[in-house]
Every structure is written in structure tokens, then in C-alpha cells.
Automatic annotation (TrEMBL), chain A:
Protein name: Tripartite ATP-independent periplasmic transporter DctQ component
Chain ranges passing through the membrane: 34-54, 74-93, 114-135, 163-185
Organism annotation: Aminomonas paucivorans DSM 12260
Keyword terms, alphabetized: Cell inner membrane, Cell membrane, Membrane, Transmembrane, Transmembrane helix, Transport
GO BP term (any one): C4-dicarboxylate transport
Gene Ontology cellular component terms for the protein in this record: plasma membrane
Major subcellular site: membrane
InterPro entries xref list: DctQ (IPR055348), TRAP_DctQ (IPR007387)
From TrEMBL, chain B:
Name this protein carries in UniProt: TRAP dicarboxylate transporter, DctM subunit
Record GO terms (molecular function): transmembrane transporter activity
Membrane-traversing stretches: 51-72, 146-165, 177-196, 224-242, 248-264, 276-301, 366-388, 400-422
NCBIfam families reported for this sequence: dctM
Residue ranges that the Swiss-Prot or TrEMBL entry lists as coiled coil: none
Pfam families in alphabetical order: DctM
Span of domain TRAP C4-dicarboxylate transport system permease DctM subunit: 6-424
GO cellular component: plasma membrane
Signal peptide location: none
């Protein structure tokens, strides 16, 4: 968007809640660079791999009269990595959908800063709770139902351990909590100093 | 307790907590204080439950259709489509608006989302509309409305999600919004011409002879063919029994890459990388929403929310057509508060048992939901497509309000009524093509 | 009651399987003179079969009538192997609680902390198609059908042994794929399930009974150990009777479903147990291919005990 358009009095698109593919932000500090670089690499390779694998299965059926047997087990695994690295990136990017009525309709001031802080606090706390559930979920898959490392849950055909998918979910939740935490620090600072976040 | 959980959800949404986290917050409330005895629920089952729900191949179609639409948008195919449509309708008063509307409908058969349609067709149409003397508020409102056709013409992400949650056929759901989509296209064109009647500023292109038309058609049609092949491959492949929906979506991605890179040369490898990442982020954002809502809706069902809602509706009236009106009002209000995907994921698990109990055809309801969620994208306060239209069309919101309201009253209200109360219109195509019972 | 048990089921509330759960709960309640009270939760209310199985391991659900997931141990697919029954009478023999299969399945479940109490047979599995299969009783003839199989080795091998070309399509896409013609047949559907899920698209139903839809009555080991020996006996006997009852009911239900299919215009082919032996033998010949995941010892023991004669 050009400067001129930014200045218009329309509420901004990403503040009103939408899934509009906003352009990715560029990371500045080295930690973000590594994390975002990892997300980008996973997202890109998983997307291409998924498209290629599913198309290949379709072609196999017609051209070679064969079944790419059990390929959906891989496809689903790749899909979870795509979903949750995309979601992690989304948290860095602040592109998670919100029906942000406060930003659009409440005037600047202490009350608005307080609400922004409250929003970030709730967001961070709830994500941390689910991150904890996610960690337990992952450990269940990683150590098995008896906690002894035997009888790990796996897929039926390729026997892929399911914790490989669970890990994507837990990692996604971890980075969501991380970036929501960063946002909380910023809004807390803004609240204390009384300036615009 | 369920009412407090709903209150928690609403409060979180209003202060701007991201939608998936709002869902989790409401679920967290029930985990601690829900259940028949107020002792809460076992949390260790929630993530595994969401996992088994999400562990589905058909959801991958959403990711693939978003990516294919993004690549085609970046590949600058909009211009070719618009030039092609212009051959047929460019010469009447308000014809340029008609060109934009129909182009949105055509692009809708490639893309599954309204924003992609708006940014693809809108970016090219706005300068042309401005040059054609259209008031900027009118132009922005028109294109915002027209881009919603991307949500009615298949493929369509919201209906894939609906089909996935409700266990209905994706194919039948896709077909259900086609007739409402055609009616909407016609009404948008008519309302556009009606609003511009007697506006001397709007230029009219000179009439073309049939020979000129034919030559233009040949020239521009050739350029548009690679883009138009995509819906042929996707929809033809699905309905012709060549591929499943997910397979078609993956083929669409692999097809759109060379078209964008080499045929239209609209982007390069760097641009391709960017658009794939952007689509992945969009997908991730949607999927986290689906994950959290599948956990939440499980708790809502355990709390018997659908029956409580139905009871509430029935306390107003026992007549199922009156309840249908209440359902529509409910969906419109939800649409004002949230974006399209959130409305579908949140309301479907609650509404489907009600729809079945009242004896409505679930495919009919798919169309009702489809039209309502489309409308929800332009109803303030949460009106993402309207705001995007304002930004792209460089129009302040107050100039857009009057024409936007005209479109809502003269176009969307009739379409809503048609869709809700003439089920035959909705079910015609699903019945003829897929034998879906009336 | 001394013990109140949560009994999880996967069938809807009006399904015969759920009614049987309720009857079992009532019988156990009466015979233990109220010492054990059982609460039935049908329709996946407590989660799907994988989740329920996890909770049986943990002891947070006490009993279930659910499918056995193979995700914790591939050998649990044992009972889904195709070709070891040809009809209801051979099913009664194979599923007897004193038989080899029951003891083996109990042993495998026990390793994970789950006690097997009985089987529930929902019905026989056949092949449904949208175009006629060539020579359906002769396994050597290519049937000319692209057949969808569930994502499990046992079904793929079973279908291929009978002369079908196979494709694995996700369950959610099966109806659409049959309707548009992505595939022409399905394997792995029990008669009633085929009628409910695919009744509108099927044209032919071959009641080849090469397999049956069978799920398990199970109890958490933790719960089982809390029950007094005398009451354990009451529970075990009640579920043995339920197993046999389910097989009788399955026979009636399958016939009822096939009549309903015929009413819908689906052409139904019924065969005698003797006619089906060549198919069963051909399917059994494919069993060694399961050794990779299910171990050689287990498969050879299985063949010794259950191969069709
Ligand atoms: Na579309
Ligand atoms: Na809205």
C-alpha cells in the first residue's frame, strides 16, 4: 500500500479481521530472522511437496494404473507442518484474525491502552494454557500411552510415529505464545509510559 | 455455565483477542467450570480430539485453492479476463461496472476467497472506472460487492469448511450457491445501472459492430484461454469424475505456476516464493481457527448448546419458516461481528443439529450460510472486504456508505430472501447434477 | 453401587449395538445385585475409538464397545484380516471366547492395559460397485473394477487377492468418488453401512462375506482389577452371551439391509458358504504379506488356527 492510501480514513484491513494474505513483515532481530526463516522454508517446501505429491497420486492412478498406497499418511503429516508453521508465522506477522472493534472505534487514550493491554494479556495467558496442553499431547505421543516408550501411536501403513505431527502443533503453539508474549510486553510498556503502542 | 462461556467468547472478540484464542478462552472456561456438575472437563482429551478432526485430507484443498488463487492473482491474469469480458458488455451505460462485476464472477471460479478476487480484479478496474467517470465511492462499493461473488461461485473455502464440519458432500455444497451467485451477479449489474442512471459524468464507450466484436473476441480470447482453462480443469475434473476435490486443488496449484511465470509473465521466482509463504500464513491462520473451534464446539455440544438454541428459537415461534428467518438474522449479526470463515466455523456445529431437527435440507442451508457469510464481509463493524475496497479504490468510507447500502437493500436482501425461501432455486443444480433430494 | 462404570460406544443411540450395550449394562447391574452400575455413553460422546482406547489404557473410561485402533500396535489389526470367515456359522466358531483369536487379541490388548471381554459383529462385508464385476466368485479373473479400500494392508491385500484394482480414497470422499466415477467400487463396507452411506450410488452388491465388521467389548485393566472375582465372572459371561447374540442379530440385519438395497434397485448377489470358499482361500494366500508389520510368528499361528479349509 502506498503512503497516500494509508492516510485515508478507512479502517485498516488487518485491524478488522480478515484472511487477506497480508504481505509478510520482514524480521529485524537475529532470533526472529532464524525463526521466520525456518517457518518460510517449512511453509514453502511443504506447500510444493503437498501439491506435487497429491498430483502424483492422481497421475499414478491414470497413467500407471497404480495406487500411491498410503500416501495420505505423508500428506497429512506435511499438512500439519504447513498449517502450524504458517500459524507461527502469522503470530509474528500479527495476521491472526481478530474482530478488533476497539482499535477501530475507540478514541486514543488511557482506556484504549488499557484494553489493548488486557487483550494481549488474555491472548498470552490462554495461549500458554493451551501450549501446556499441547506439550502433554506431544509427550503422550513421544513416550507412548504407558509412558514407557513402548506402543507409540503410529500411522497404519507407513508406521510414521504420530508425535511427528503433534510436534508441529506444539511448536506452532509455542511460537504463537512467544510472539503474543512480545506483543504483551509492548502494550504493557505503552500502558505504563502512557504512549501510543 | 454455557452462557458464561458464550459471554467470555463475545468479550474476548470485542476487545480484539484473536478469534482462535477467543475460542480457546471460551473452551478454557468450560474446562474449568463446565460440565453437568460444574466440575469441568478432562483437558487431556481436547487436543487429541482436535487432532483427529484436523487429520483429514479434504482440508488440504483449502490450502491448495488459496495458493492457486494467490498465484493466479500475482500472475496478472486479471487484465486478460477483464479485456475478454469487456468485448461483450463494454458498450452500455454503466457497462464498465458490469464488466468489473462479471470479471469478479469469472475470477471467482478460480479463487476461493473474496479478498483475492477484489485485489486481483479491483486493482485493474479502479483506474478504469475512475477514467470512465465513476464516482469513487460508487466504484469502491461496487467492486467490494462484486468481489463477494468469489464466495458464491465455486470453488469456495467457506463451503469446504462447512462440508467438512457438517459431513455433507463438498460437491453439492459448491453447487448450492451457484444459482444465488447468478442472481446476485444480475442484481449487482442492474443496481449499478440504476444508481448511475442519468449520471452524465459516466462515459459510454462507442458501440462495436459484430465484426469488431468477433475480431476482439478472437484476439482477447486467445490471451484469456490459459486462465480460463483453470476452472475447466478444476470443476471439469471434479464433476467429470477424474479427480477428488483435494486432487483438483493440488493440480490447480501446479497448473497455475507455469501460467503465472511463463505465459503471463506476471511474476518471477521471488514473487512465487512470496505468494506461497503468504498463502501458507493465510492457511495457518484458518487452520488454527478450525483446530480451536473443533475443540470448542465439542464442549458446546456436550453442554447441549444446539438444543438450548433451538428451544430459544421455538419459544418465539414453532413455525420452521419463521425460525429460518431468525436463523438468518442470527447469521447477519454474526457476520457483522466476524469475518466469513469465523462465522462458518463457529455457527455450523451449533446450527446443523437445529437444521436437521427442523427438517431443512442441509444443502439448502449450505447456500443460506454461503450467502450470509458473503454479505457478512461488507457489513460493518467487521467488514473486511468493504474496507479493502475503500483502500484499493481510494474512497473514504462515508462516500462508500450510500451506494453500499443501496447494494445491500436492493441486491443482497432479495438474494437472501430467495435463498432462504425458494429452496428449489438453491437445490435445482444439486438435484439435477447430483440427485440431491429436493 | 460399589462401582459406577463409564461404558463408551461408537454407534448412535438407536443402533442395535447401543441397545445391546444397554441390555448388557442392565444384566450386569441385576446379576451383581447393584454392586456394579454401568452408565452407557453412545455415539462417540466420550470421543472416537482411538481416544476411547487411550482412556481405557489410562483408566479414565472403564468399558467400551469400540473398534480397536492399530496405531499403538499393528498386531491388533489381526481381527480385521480378511478371509477367515465365510459366514455367520464360521464367525461363531472364530469369535468364541475359548477360541484362539479371542485369547490372542486379549493377550495383545493386555500388554497395553486393556482387557478384552467380547466381540460385537455388526455384519458381513461384501463388495459394492457401480458397474458389474466380472465373474465375482473367481479370484483369478480381473474384475474390471477400481475399488476403494480402507487405508489398511489387510483390506488392500484382500481386495487384490479377489481380482480388484485398488485405490485408497479418504472416507469423506468416497461418496463423491463413487458418484462421479473416480472409483467404481468399494471394499470394506459392512452391508448396513454400505446401504446407509452409499445406498444412493451403488448399483450392485456382492455379498461375498470375505470379512465382517467386528468391534470389541473392552475394559480398562485398572477397572477389571477393582472387580471381585465373582463379579468378574458375571461380567465375562454377560459379554460372551452378547457376542453370540450380536452374530445372530447381524444375520437378520444383513438380510434386512439387502432387502432394502433391492427395494432401492440395487442388484444383490447372495452366495452359499461353499460357493465362497475359493475367494476365502485366495485371500488367505495373501496373508504372508502381512508378516512384515504383524510378525511372522503371529501370522503363522493365525494360519494354523484360522485358514479356510
Ligand atoms: Na470461488
Ligand atoms: Na461483517
Amino acid at each position: 500500500m502506498s503512503e497516500q492510501v494509508e492516510a485515508m480514513d478507512t479502517p485498516s484491513c488487518d485491524s478488522c479481521g480478515t484472511v487477506c494474505s497480508p504481505a509478510p513483515h520482514r524480521p529485524k532481530n537475529p532470533v526472529d530472522k532464524v525463526v521466520v526463516g525456518f517457518f518460510s522454508l517449512v511453509c514453502f517446501s511443504m506447500s510444493v511437496l503437498l501439491a506435487a505429491l497429491i498430483t502424483a497420486a492422481t497421475l499414478m492412478r491414470y497413467v500407471f494404473q497404480a495406487d500411491l498406497y498410503g500416501y495420505e499418511e505423508w500428506v497429512k503429516l506435511f499438512a500439519f507442518w504447513l498449517y502450524f508453521c504458517g500459524a507461527g508465522y502469522g503470530a509474528f506477522n500479527k495476521s491472526h484474525v481478530s474482530a478488533d472493534l476497539v482499535t477501530a472505534y475507540i478514541p486514543e487514550g488511557g482506556f484504549k491502552r488499557f484494553l489493548a493491554f488486557l487483550k494481549d494479556l488474555v491472548t498470552f495467558a490462554v495461549t500458554c494454557l493451551f501450549l501446556y496442553y499441547g506439550y502433554e499431547f506431544f509427550m503422550f505421543g513421544f513416550r507412548g500411552p504407558l509412558g514407557t516408550g513402548i506402543a507409540l501411536p503410529m500411522t497404519t501403513i507407513w508406521r510414521i510415529p504420530l508425535w511427528t505431527s503433534y510436534l508441529a502443533i506444539t511448536l506452532g503453539l509455542f511460537f504463537m505464545a512467544w510472539y503474543f508474549g512480545v506483543a504483551l510486553l509492548q502494550s504493557a510498556k505503552a500502558l505504563l509510559k502512557g504512549e501510543k503502542a | 455455565m454455557i452462557y458464561v462461556a458464550l459471554l467470555v467468547l463475545m468479550a474476548c472478540l470485542v476487545i480484539g483477542v484473536p478469534v482462535p484464542v477467543s475460542f480457546m478462552a471460551s473452551a478454557a472456561w468450560l474446562i474449568f467450570f463446565g460440565g453437568p456438575d460444574g466440575m469441568g472437563y478432562e483437558p487431556s482429551q481436547l487436543l487429541p480430539y482436535g487432532f483427529t478432526q484436523m487429520n483429514s485430507v479434504s482440508l488440504i484443498a483449502i490450502a491448495m485453492f488459496i495458493m492457486a488463487g494467490g498465484i493466479m492473482e500475482r500472475g496478472k491474469i486479471g487484465e486478460k479476463l477483464i479485456d475478454m469480458v469487456d468485448v461483450f458488455v463494454g458498450h452500455v451505460r454503466g457497462g464498465l461496472g458490469v464488466v468489473g462485476t462479471i470479471s469478479c464472477a469469472v475470477f471467482g471460479s478460480i479463487s476461493g476467497a473474496a479478498c483475492a478476487t477484489l485485489s486481483c480484479i479491483g486493482t485493474i478496474m479502479f483506474p478504469r472506472l475512475q477514467a470512465g467517470g465513476y464516482p469513487r465511492g460508487h466504484a469502491a462499493a461496487l467492486m467490494s460487492n462484486a468481489s463477494l461473488l468469489g464466495l458464491l461461485i465455486p470453488p469456495n473455502a467457506t463451503l469446504i469448511i462447512f462440508a467438512w464440519i457438517s459431513g455433507q458432500s463438498i460437491l453439492a455444497c459448491f453447487l448450492s450457491t451457484v444459482m444465488p451467485g447468478i442472481v446476485t451477479t444480475t442484481l449487482i449489474c442492474l443496481v449499478n445501472m440504476y444508481l448511475l442512471r442519468g449520471n452524465e459524468q459516466v462515459l459510454v464507450a462507442h458501440k462495436r459492430t459484430s465484426e469488431e466484436k468477433w475480431n476482439l473476441f478472437k484476439e482477447r480470447g486467445r490471451k484469456a484461454i490459459p486462465a480460463l482453462m483453470l476452472p475447466v480443469i478444476v470443476l471439469g475434473g471434479i464433476y467429470g469424475g477424474v479427480m477428488t476435490t483435494t486432487e483438483a486443488s493440488a493440480v490447480a496449484v501446479l497448473y497455475s505456476i507455469p501460467v503465472a511465470l511463463f505465459v503471463y509473465k506476471g511474476t518471477n521466482w521471488k514473487g512465487l516464493w512470496d505468494v506461497v509463504i503468504e498463502s501458507a500464513v493465510t492457511t495457518g491462520v484458518i487452520m488454527v481457527m478450525l483446530y480451536s473451534v473443533s475443540m470448542l464446539s465439542r464442549l458446546y455440544v456436550l453442554e447441549d448448546l444446539p438444543n438450548k438454541m433451538l428451544f430459544l428459537f421455538q419459544s418465539v415461534s414453532e413455525n420452521r419458516w419463521v425460525i429460518m428467518a431468525m436463523i438468518n438474522v442470527f447469521l447477519v449479526i454474526m457476520g457483522m461481528l466476524m469475518d466469513d470463515i469465523s462465522v462458518v466455523v463457529l455457527t455450523t456445529p451449533i446450527m446443523m443439529p437445529i437444521i436437521m431437527q427442523l427438517g431443512f435440507n442441509p444443502i439448502h442451508y449450505a447456500a443460506v450460510l454461503g450467502v450470509n457469510t458473503a454479505l457478512g464481509c461488507i457489513t460493518p463493524p467487521a467488514a473486511p472486504v468493504l474496507y479493502l475496497g475503500g483502500r484499493l479504490g481510494k474512497a473514504p468510507i462515508n462516500e462508500m456508505m450510500k451506494p453500499a447500502l443501496a447494494f445491500m437493500l436492493l441486491c443482497w436482501l432479495p438474494v437472501l430472501l430467495f435463498t432462504a425461501y425458494v429452496p428449489k432455486l438453491v437445490l435445482f443444480l444439486p438435484h439435477v447434477i447430483l440427485d440431491v433430494p429436493w | 453401587a460399589e462401582l459406577t462404570l463409564k461404558f463408551a460406544g461408537q454407534y448412535p443411540a438407536d443402533h442395535p449395538g447401543t441397545k445391546l450395550m444397554q441390555a448388557v449394562a442392565k444384566e450386569i447391574g441385576q446379576k451383581t445385585k447393584g454392586r456394579i452400575e454401568i452408565k452407557v455413553f453412545p455415539g462417540n460422546q466420550l470421543g472416537d475409538y482411538t481416544l476411547v482406547y487411550e482412556e481405557l489404557i489410562r483408566g479414565t473410561i472403564d468399558m467400551s464397545l469400540t473398534s480397536v485402533p492399530s496405531q499403538f500396535d499393528p498386531r491388533l489389526e489381526l481381527m480385521y484380516i480378511n478371509g477367515y470367515v465365510t459366514g455367520y456359522d464360521s464367525a461363531k466358531k472364530a469369535f468364541n471366547p475359548n477360541g484362539w483369536l479371542f485369547k490372542k487379541m486379549d493377550e495383545l490388548n493386555s500388554r497395553l492395559g486393556v482387557k478384552l471381554l467380547g466381540f460385537y459383529v455388526e455384519g458381513m462385508i461384501g463388495t459394492g460397485t457401480t458397474k458389474p464385476a466380472k465373474d465375482p466368485l473367481n479370484p483369478k479373473v480381473n474384475k474390471g473394477i477400481l475399488c476403494r479400500v480402507p487405508n489398511m494392508d489387510v483390506y488392500k491385500l484382500g481386495a487384490e487377492a479377489q481380482g480388484y484394482r485398488t485405490v485408497t480414497i479418504p472416507y469423506a470422499d468416497v461418496y463423491q468418488s463413487m458418484q462421479t466415477g473416480v472409483c467404481d467400487g468399494v471394499n470394506g463396507f459392512a452391508t448396513t453401512a454400505a446401504l446407509t452411506a452409499l445406498g444412493d450410488v451403488l448399483k450392485y452388491w456382492y455379498a461375498t462375506n470375505y470379512s465382517m465388521e467386528c468391534i470389541n467389548f473392552m475394559m480398562s485393566k485398572k477397572t477389571w482389577d477393582k472387580i471381585k472375582p465373582a463379579d468378574q465372572k458375571i461380567v465375562a459371561e454377560a459379554l460372551t452371551r452378547a457376542t453370540m447374540k450380536s452374530i445372530d442379530e447381524a444375520k437378520a440385519l444383513d438380510e434386512q439391509s439387502m432387502k432394502a438395497m433391492e427395494k432401492k434397485g440395487i442388484k444383490v448377489f447372495r452366495y452359499s458358504e461353499a460357493q465362497l470358499v475359493p475367494i476365502a482361500k485366495a485371500v488367505a494366500a495373501s496373508w504372508p504379506k502381512l508378516e512384515g508389520k504383524m510378525t511372522k510368528e503371529l501370522i503363522s499361528e493365525f494360519r494354523k488356527n484360522l485358514a479356510p479349509k
